Amino acid sequence: MKKHYVGSEIGQLRSVMLHRPNLSLKRLTPSNCQELLFDDVLSVERAGEEHDVFSNLLRQQGVEVLLLGDLLTETLDITEAREWLLNTQISDYRLGPSFARDVRAWLAERSFRELANYLTGGLTYGEIPEVIKSISVETHDANDFIMKPLPNHLFTRDTSCWIYNGTSINPMAKQARRRETNNIRAIYRWHPAFADGAFIKYFGNEEINYDHATLEGGDVLVLGRGTVLIGMSERTTPQGVEFLVDSLFKHQQATRVIAVELPKHRSCMHLDTVMTHIDIDTFSVYPEVVRSDVQCWTLTPDGHGGIKRVSEKGLVYAIEQALGLDQVKLITTGGDAFEAEREQWNDANNVLTIRPGVVVGYERNTWTNEKYDKAGITVLPIPGDELGRGRGGARCMSCPLERDGI
Fold this sequence. Notes:
The protein is an alpha/beta fold. It folds into two domains: 5-66 and 151-403, L-arginine/glycine Amidinotransferase, Chain A (5-stranded Propeller), CATH 3.75.10.10; 71-147, Orthogonal Bundle (Pentein). 32% of the residues lie in helices and 22% in strands. It contains 14 helices and 20 strands. The strands form six sheets. Strands 9-10-11-14-15 form a five-stranded mixed beta sheet, with helices on both faces. A hairpin with a 2-residue loop joins strand 12 (275-279) and strand 13 (282-285). The chain is globular and about 70 Å long. It comes from Izhakiella australiensis. Keywords: Arginine metabolism, Cytoplasm, Hydrolase.
Protein backbone atom coordinates (compact mmCIF):
# COMPACT_ATOMS: atom_id res chain seq x y z
CA MET A 1 0.00 0.00 0.00
CA LYS A 2 1.16 3.53 -0.71
CA LYS A 3 1.90 5.76 2.21
CA HIS A 4 -0.26 8.81 2.66
CA TYR A 5 2.04 11.39 4.17
CA VAL A 6 2.16 15.16 3.79
CA GLY A 7 5.32 16.53 5.36
CA SER A 8 5.25 20.15 4.18
CA GLU A 9 3.69 22.73 1.87
CA ILE A 10 6.62 22.85 -0.54
CA GLY A 11 8.32 19.43 -0.67
CA GLN A 12 7.91 17.42 -3.89
CA LEU A 13 4.18 16.87 -4.46
CA ARG A 14 3.57 13.21 -5.35
CA SER A 15 -0.17 12.58 -5.16
CA VAL A 16 -3.19 14.87 -5.09
CA MET A 17 -7.00 14.66 -5.11
CA LEU A 18 -8.91 17.02 -7.41
CA HIS A 19 -12.60 17.29 -8.34
CA ARG A 20 -13.52 18.01 -11.94
CA PRO A 21 -16.63 20.21 -11.79
CA ASN A 22 -19.69 18.69 -13.42
CA LEU A 23 -23.41 18.52 -12.67
CA SER A 24 -23.08 20.71 -9.56
CA LEU A 25 -21.94 23.68 -11.66
CA LYS A 26 -24.72 23.15 -14.21
CA ARG A 27 -27.14 23.65 -11.35
CA LEU A 28 -25.68 26.96 -10.20
CA THR A 29 -28.06 29.76 -11.13
CA PRO A 30 -28.19 33.48 -10.35
CA SER A 31 -30.97 32.75 -7.83
CA ASN A 32 -29.15 29.99 -5.89
CA CYS A 33 -25.44 30.69 -6.31
CA GLN A 34 -25.13 32.89 -3.19
CA GLU A 35 -26.76 30.23 -1.02
CA LEU A 36 -24.32 27.69 -2.49
CA LEU A 37 -21.40 30.05 -1.63
CA PHE A 38 -20.56 31.12 -5.19
CA ASP A 39 -20.47 34.77 -6.20
CA ASP A 40 -21.38 34.04 -9.79
CA VAL A 41 -22.50 31.35 -12.22
CA LEU A 42 -19.77 29.72 -14.29
CA SER A 43 -19.53 28.56 -17.88
CA VAL A 44 -19.57 24.83 -17.12
CA GLU A 45 -17.81 23.65 -20.29
CA ARG A 46 -15.08 26.25 -19.97
CA ALA A 47 -14.57 25.55 -16.26
CA GLY A 48 -14.18 21.85 -17.06
CA GLU A 49 -11.64 22.59 -19.80
CA GLU A 50 -9.65 24.85 -17.48
CA HIS A 51 -9.69 22.14 -14.81
CA ASP A 52 -8.40 19.60 -17.34
CA VAL A 53 -5.46 21.92 -18.10
CA PHE A 54 -4.71 22.01 -14.34
CA SER A 55 -4.92 18.20 -13.99
CA ASN A 56 -2.76 17.58 -17.04
CA LEU A 57 -0.13 20.09 -15.95
CA LEU A 58 0.18 18.27 -12.60
CA ARG A 59 0.51 14.91 -14.39
CA GLN A 60 3.20 16.35 -16.67
CA GLN A 61 5.05 17.39 -13.51
CA GLY A 62 5.00 13.77 -12.31
CA VAL A 63 2.16 14.19 -9.80
CA GLU A 64 -0.42 11.39 -9.47
CA VAL A 65 -3.91 12.92 -9.89
CA LEU A 66 -6.89 11.16 -8.30
CA LEU A 67 -10.33 12.55 -9.17
CA LEU A 68 -12.92 12.67 -6.41
CA GLY A 69 -15.71 11.59 -8.79
CA ASP A 70 -13.77 8.43 -9.70
CA LEU A 71 -12.88 7.67 -6.06
CA LEU A 72 -16.52 8.10 -5.03
CA THR A 73 -17.76 5.90 -7.90
CA GLU A 74 -15.31 3.15 -6.91
CA THR A 75 -16.28 3.50 -3.25
CA LEU A 76 -19.98 3.04 -4.11
CA ASP A 77 -19.09 -0.35 -5.59
CA ILE A 78 -18.70 -1.52 -1.96
CA THR A 79 -22.12 -2.45 -0.54
CA GLU A 80 -21.44 -1.25 3.01
CA ALA A 81 -20.14 2.11 1.76
CA ARG A 82 -23.12 2.56 -0.56
CA GLU A 83 -25.62 1.83 2.20
CA TRP A 84 -23.86 4.13 4.66
CA LEU A 85 -23.73 7.00 2.18
CA LEU A 86 -27.36 6.64 1.13
CA ASN A 87 -28.51 6.48 4.75
CA THR A 88 -26.35 9.48 5.64
CA GLN A 89 -27.05 11.75 2.65
CA ILE A 90 -30.74 10.76 2.27
CA SER A 91 -31.59 10.40 5.94
CA ASP A 92 -35.08 9.86 7.35
CA TYR A 93 -34.75 13.15 9.21
CA ARG A 94 -33.92 14.99 5.99
CA LEU A 95 -36.84 13.71 3.91
CA GLY A 96 -39.20 11.91 6.27
CA PRO A 97 -39.02 8.10 6.73
CA SER A 98 -41.22 6.81 3.91
CA PHE A 99 -40.08 9.29 1.24
CA ALA A 100 -36.42 8.81 2.23
CA ARG A 101 -36.80 5.02 2.01
CA ASP A 102 -38.31 5.24 -1.50
CA VAL A 103 -35.64 7.68 -2.76
CA ARG A 104 -32.83 5.53 -1.29
CA ALA A 105 -34.26 2.41 -2.90
CA TRP A 106 -34.46 4.11 -6.31
CA LEU A 107 -30.93 5.56 -6.00
CA ALA A 108 -29.53 2.17 -4.95
CA GLU A 109 -30.54 0.82 -8.37
CA ARG A 110 -28.61 3.50 -10.30
CA SER A 111 -25.16 2.80 -11.70
CA PHE A 112 -22.33 3.73 -9.35
CA ARG A 113 -21.24 6.56 -11.67
CA GLU A 114 -24.77 7.97 -11.84
CA LEU A 115 -25.14 7.74 -8.07
CA ALA A 116 -21.81 9.50 -7.56
CA ASN A 117 -23.07 12.26 -9.86
CA TYR A 118 -26.22 12.70 -7.77
CA LEU A 119 -24.24 12.67 -4.51
CA THR A 120 -22.03 15.50 -5.74
CA GLY A 121 -24.36 17.26 -8.20
CA GLY A 122 -27.67 17.09 -6.39
CA LEU A 123 -31.05 15.51 -7.12
CA THR A 124 -34.31 17.24 -8.10
CA TYR A 125 -37.92 16.18 -7.59
CA GLY A 126 -38.31 16.04 -11.37
CA GLU A 127 -35.61 13.34 -11.63
CA ILE A 128 -37.28 10.70 -9.48
CA PRO A 129 -39.95 8.39 -10.95
CA GLU A 130 -43.59 9.49 -10.72
CA VAL A 131 -44.47 6.33 -8.79
CA ILE A 132 -42.69 7.76 -5.74
CA LYS A 133 -45.43 9.69 -3.93
CA SER A 134 -45.33 11.76 -0.77
CA ILE A 135 -46.50 15.06 0.69
CA SER A 136 -43.00 16.39 -0.09
CA VAL A 137 -43.43 15.58 -3.79
CA GLU A 138 -46.85 17.25 -3.88
CA THR A 139 -45.55 20.42 -2.22
CA HIS A 140 -42.45 20.89 -4.41
CA ASP A 141 -41.81 21.85 -8.01
CA ALA A 142 -39.91 19.58 -10.41
CA ASN A 143 -36.78 21.76 -10.21
CA ASP A 144 -36.66 21.93 -6.42
CA PHE A 145 -33.83 19.97 -4.84
CA ILE A 146 -34.27 16.80 -2.82
CA MET A 147 -30.48 16.92 -2.38
CA LYS A 148 -28.77 20.22 -3.10
CA PRO A 149 -25.70 20.26 -5.36
CA LEU A 150 -22.22 20.46 -3.84
CA PRO A 151 -20.36 22.84 -6.21
CA ASN A 152 -17.73 23.53 -3.53
CA HIS A 153 -16.42 19.97 -3.84
CA LEU A 154 -14.27 21.71 -6.49
CA PHE A 155 -12.20 22.93 -3.53
CA THR A 156 -10.93 19.57 -2.29
CA ARG A 157 -8.45 21.34 -0.01
CA ASP A 158 -11.11 22.22 2.56
CA THR A 159 -13.06 19.04 3.22
CA SER A 160 -10.06 17.12 4.49
CA CYS A 161 -6.44 18.01 5.07
CA TRP A 162 -3.50 15.64 5.39
CA ILE A 163 -1.00 16.62 8.08
CA TYR A 164 2.12 14.45 8.43
CA ASN A 165 0.90 10.85 9.01
CA GLY A 166 -2.82 11.53 9.21
CA THR A 167 -5.84 13.47 8.06
CA SER A 168 -8.48 15.73 9.53
CA ILE A 169 -11.93 15.09 8.00
CA ASN A 170 -13.25 18.55 8.55
CA PRO A 171 -16.56 19.66 10.07
CA MET A 172 -17.45 22.45 7.63
CA ALA A 173 -18.72 25.83 8.80
CA LYS A 174 -21.43 26.39 6.19
CA GLN A 175 -24.54 24.26 5.76
CA ALA A 176 -23.99 24.24 1.98
CA ARG A 177 -20.77 22.25 2.42
CA ARG A 178 -21.48 19.84 5.28
CA ARG A 179 -22.54 16.91 3.10
CA GLU A 180 -19.17 17.05 1.30
CA THR A 181 -17.53 15.65 4.42
CA ASN A 182 -19.62 12.46 4.27
CA ASN A 183 -18.49 11.73 0.69
CA ILE A 184 -14.87 12.10 1.82
CA ARG A 185 -15.41 10.01 4.96
CA ALA A 186 -16.78 7.16 2.84
CA ILE A 187 -13.80 7.34 0.46
CA TYR A 188 -11.23 7.31 3.29
CA ARG A 189 -13.01 4.49 5.08
CA TRP A 190 -13.81 2.10 2.22
CA HIS A 191 -11.93 2.95 -0.98
CA PRO A 192 -9.14 0.40 -1.62
CA ALA A 193 -6.53 3.18 -1.80
CA PHE A 194 -7.26 4.12 1.83
CA ALA A 195 -9.03 1.13 3.38
CA ASP A 196 -5.95 -0.32 5.08
CA GLY A 197 -6.36 2.58 7.52
CA ALA A 198 -2.60 3.01 7.98
CA PHE A 199 -3.07 6.67 8.81
CA ILE A 200 -4.42 8.68 11.74
CA LYS A 201 -7.83 10.35 11.64
CA TYR A 202 -7.20 13.38 13.83
CA PHE A 203 -10.61 15.00 13.96
CA GLY A 204 -14.05 15.11 12.39
CA ASN A 205 -14.69 11.43 11.76
CA GLU A 206 -17.45 10.88 14.34
CA GLU A 207 -21.15 11.06 13.59
CA ILE A 208 -21.86 13.91 15.98
CA ASN A 209 -22.86 17.57 15.77
CA TYR A 210 -19.60 19.53 15.98
CA ASP A 211 -21.51 22.71 16.81
CA HIS A 212 -19.01 25.62 16.82
CA ALA A 213 -15.90 23.42 16.41
CA THR A 214 -15.51 23.96 12.66
CA LEU A 215 -12.33 23.63 10.63
CA GLU A 216 -11.51 23.91 6.93
CA GLY A 217 -8.33 22.82 5.13
CA GLY A 218 -7.73 26.17 3.45
CA ASP A 219 -6.75 27.46 6.88
CA VAL A 220 -4.18 24.71 7.53
CA LEU A 221 -0.58 25.03 6.27
CA VAL A 222 1.79 22.12 7.02
CA LEU A 223 5.00 24.12 7.31
CA GLY A 224 7.16 21.04 7.95
CA ARG A 225 9.73 20.22 10.63
CA GLY A 226 6.92 19.38 13.05
CA THR A 227 5.15 22.71 12.64
CA VAL A 228 1.61 23.47 11.46
CA LEU A 229 0.23 26.97 10.79
CA ILE A 230 -3.54 27.43 11.21
CA GLY A 231 -5.64 30.49 10.44
CA MET A 232 -8.70 31.32 12.53
CA SER A 233 -10.96 32.69 9.84
CA GLU A 234 -14.58 33.06 8.81
CA ARG A 235 -14.69 29.24 8.60
CA THR A 236 -12.19 27.89 11.18
CA THR A 237 -12.94 28.58 14.85
CA PRO A 238 -10.65 28.52 17.90
CA GLN A 239 -12.75 25.54 19.10
CA GLY A 240 -11.99 23.59 15.90
CA VAL A 241 -8.30 24.52 16.15
CA GLU A 242 -8.11 23.27 19.75
CA PHE A 243 -9.54 19.86 18.84
CA LEU A 244 -7.11 19.43 15.93
CA VAL A 245 -4.09 20.65 17.92
CA ASP A 246 -4.95 18.38 20.83
CA SER A 247 -5.07 15.38 18.47
CA LEU A 248 -1.84 16.34 16.66
CA PHE A 249 0.01 16.51 19.98
CA LYS A 250 -1.61 13.34 21.35
CA HIS A 251 -0.48 11.41 18.26
CA GLN A 252 2.95 13.11 18.40
CA GLN A 253 2.59 14.34 14.82
CA ALA A 254 3.44 17.98 15.50
CA THR A 255 5.67 19.69 18.04
CA ARG A 256 4.20 23.15 17.60
CA VAL A 257 1.24 24.88 16.00
CA ILE A 258 1.14 28.56 15.12
CA ALA A 259 -2.42 29.95 15.29
CA VAL A 260 -3.11 33.28 13.60
CA GLU A 261 -6.23 35.43 13.74
CA LEU A 262 -7.67 36.54 10.39
CA PRO A 263 -10.36 39.08 9.53
CA LYS A 264 -13.77 37.41 9.24
CA HIS A 265 -14.73 38.42 5.72
CA ARG A 266 -15.13 36.71 2.38
CA SER A 267 -12.15 38.22 0.55
CA CYS A 268 -9.91 36.34 2.98
CA MET A 269 -12.14 33.35 3.52
CA HIS A 270 -9.20 31.07 4.41
CA LEU A 271 -5.56 31.64 5.35
CA ASP A 272 -4.42 30.28 1.97
CA THR A 273 -6.31 33.03 0.13
CA VAL A 274 -3.90 35.55 1.66
CA MET A 275 -0.77 33.47 2.32
CA THR A 276 0.96 30.41 0.86
CA HIS A 277 4.40 28.82 1.33
CA ILE A 278 6.33 28.76 -1.96
CA ASP A 279 9.98 28.07 -1.14
CA ILE A 280 11.92 27.05 1.98
CA ASP A 281 12.21 30.66 3.19
CA THR A 282 9.61 32.37 0.97
CA PHE A 283 5.90 33.07 1.38
CA SER A 284 3.38 34.80 -0.85
CA VAL A 285 1.23 37.21 1.16
CA TYR A 286 -1.48 39.80 0.73
CA PRO A 287 -0.09 42.58 2.94
CA GLU A 288 -3.46 44.20 3.63
CA VAL A 289 -4.34 41.17 5.76
CA VAL A 290 -1.04 39.54 6.77
CA ARG A 291 0.17 42.60 8.67
CA SER A 292 2.90 42.85 11.27
CA ASP A 293 0.32 43.52 14.02
CA VAL A 294 -1.75 40.41 13.32
CA GLN A 295 -2.47 38.43 16.50
CA CYS A 296 -0.82 35.01 16.68
CA TRP A 297 0.12 32.37 19.21
CA THR A 298 2.50 29.42 19.35
CA LEU A 299 0.92 26.31 20.84
CA THR A 300 3.06 23.47 22.22
CA PRO A 301 2.39 20.41 24.42
CA ASP A 302 2.52 21.37 28.10
CA GLY A 303 3.85 17.96 29.15
CA HIS A 304 0.63 17.05 31.04
CA GLY A 305 -1.66 16.30 28.10
CA GLY A 306 -2.66 19.93 27.71
CA ILE A 307 -1.68 22.83 25.45
CA LYS A 308 0.73 25.63 26.33
CA ARG A 309 -0.03 28.94 24.60
CA VAL A 310 2.47 31.78 24.05
CA SER A 311 1.48 35.07 22.42
CA GLU A 312 3.96 35.88 19.63
CA LYS A 313 5.37 39.27 18.71
CA GLY A 314 4.71 38.61 15.03
CA LEU A 315 3.71 35.90 12.57
CA VAL A 316 6.92 36.11 10.54
CA TYR A 317 9.02 35.86 13.70
CA ALA A 318 7.03 32.81 14.85
CA ILE A 319 7.59 31.10 11.49
CA GLU A 320 11.33 31.90 11.51
CA GLN A 321 11.65 30.40 14.99
CA ALA A 322 9.66 27.28 14.06
CA LEU A 323 11.55 26.54 10.84
CA GLY A 324 14.98 27.64 12.06
CA LEU A 325 15.27 30.36 9.39
CA ASP A 326 17.35 33.54 9.67
CA GLN A 327 14.88 35.53 7.62
CA VAL A 328 11.58 34.80 5.89
CA LYS A 329 11.07 36.51 2.53
CA LEU A 330 7.60 37.79 1.69
CA ILE A 331 6.43 38.30 -1.88
CA THR A 332 3.45 40.64 -1.74
CA THR A 333 0.56 40.79 -4.20
CA GLY A 334 1.60 42.71 -7.32
CA GLY A 335 0.50 46.02 -8.82
CA ASP A 336 -0.83 49.21 -7.24
CA ALA A 337 -3.43 49.12 -4.45
CA PHE A 338 -6.29 48.57 -6.92
CA GLU A 339 -4.51 45.89 -8.96
CA ALA A 340 -3.34 44.09 -5.81
CA GLU A 341 -6.84 43.98 -4.36
CA ARG A 342 -8.21 42.67 -7.64
CA GLU A 343 -5.49 40.02 -8.01
CA GLN A 344 -5.93 38.86 -4.41
CA TRP A 345 -9.68 38.49 -5.11
CA ASN A 346 -8.63 36.34 -8.11
CA ASP A 347 -6.38 34.18 -5.91
CA ALA A 348 -2.95 35.52 -6.85
CA ASN A 349 -1.69 34.40 -3.42
CA ASN A 350 -3.43 31.01 -3.57
CA VAL A 351 -0.78 29.09 -5.49
CA LEU A 352 0.01 25.37 -5.29
CA THR A 353 3.69 24.61 -4.75
CA ILE A 354 4.80 21.49 -6.66
CA ARG A 355 8.36 21.54 -5.34
CA PRO A 356 10.45 24.31 -3.76
CA GLY A 357 10.27 27.43 -5.92
CA VAL A 358 7.85 26.00 -8.51
CA VAL A 359 4.16 26.92 -8.22
CA VAL A 360 0.91 26.65 -10.18
CA GLY A 361 -1.17 29.82 -10.40
CA TYR A 362 -3.76 31.56 -12.56
CA GLU A 363 -2.23 33.19 -15.63
CA ARG A 364 -4.54 36.22 -15.25
CA ASN A 365 -2.66 37.49 -12.17
CA THR A 366 0.05 39.14 -14.28
CA TRP A 367 1.34 41.66 -11.74
CA THR A 368 1.87 39.09 -8.99
CA ASN A 369 3.24 36.44 -11.35
CA GLU A 370 5.84 38.96 -12.52
CA LYS A 371 6.93 39.51 -8.91
CA TYR A 372 7.24 35.74 -8.39
CA ASP A 373 9.37 35.51 -11.52
CA LYS A 374 11.69 38.33 -10.40
CA ALA A 375 12.11 36.60 -7.03
CA GLY A 376 13.23 33.40 -8.77
CA ILE A 377 9.93 31.54 -8.34
CA THR A 378 8.77 29.62 -11.43
CA VAL A 379 5.03 30.03 -12.11
CA LEU A 380 3.36 27.30 -14.17
CA PRO A 381 0.28 29.20 -15.41
CA ILE A 382 -3.23 27.77 -15.80
CA PRO A 383 -6.32 29.55 -17.19
CA GLY A 384 -8.76 30.67 -14.51
CA ASP A 385 -11.29 32.95 -16.15
CA GLU A 386 -14.12 30.60 -15.14
CA LEU A 387 -12.62 28.54 -12.30
CA GLY A 388 -11.52 31.73 -10.56
CA ARG A 389 -15.14 32.88 -10.21
CA GLY A 390 -15.54 30.25 -7.49
CA ARG A 391 -13.05 32.27 -5.38
CA GLY A 392 -10.41 29.57 -5.19
CA GLY A 393 -7.01 29.08 -6.83
CA ALA A 394 -4.74 26.11 -7.46
CA ARG A 395 -4.15 25.43 -3.76
CA CYS A 396 -7.87 25.53 -2.94
CA MET A 397 -8.61 23.08 -5.76
CA SER A 398 -6.10 20.45 -4.60
CA CYS A 399 -5.88 18.11 -1.63
CA PRO A 400 -2.33 16.70 -1.35
CA LEU A 401 -2.32 13.05 -0.32
CA GLU A 402 1.43 12.53 -0.51
CA ARG A 403 4.15 15.16 -0.30
CA ASP A 404 7.76 15.13 0.85
CA GLY A 405 8.91 16.94 3.97
CA ILE A 406 11.62 19.62 4.06
